[in-house]
Structures are given as C-alpha cells and as structure tokens.
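Here is one chain, start to finish.
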Amino acid sequence: MARSNKPVNPSAENALDRMKFEVASELGIAEHVRSSGWATMTSADCGRVGGHMVRKMIEQYESTLQ
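Its structure:
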C-alpha cells in the first residue's frame, strides 16, 4: 500500500500548518521559515518541529481524557 502525504482529514491541513508555525516560533526559527521557506530548513530543525507537534497533540488528547 502506497503512503500518502495527505492528512486523513483534509480540513485539518490548515490547523496543522498553524500549529507548525506556532511550534517554529516557540523554537525561534519562525522568522527563518517565513523568509526562506521550509525547504531551506535542516532536517534536524524540521524533526524538532515535528516532535514538538506530536508532543502537543498527545498532551491535548490526554487532557480530554481527564
């Protein structure tokens, strides 16, 4: 089965992009992303942003369970 980069819920794409920029600003790399784009970022920076996004999503989910 081929992998797809499409979100399971297409309407969530904008929310994920907002969250990505929010995390980038928390990490202090948002200005570089705005000026140069994601393609110029190192894989370490992109991984850091993705890791923080997953951490935030898990925290949000766990808070709904309580």
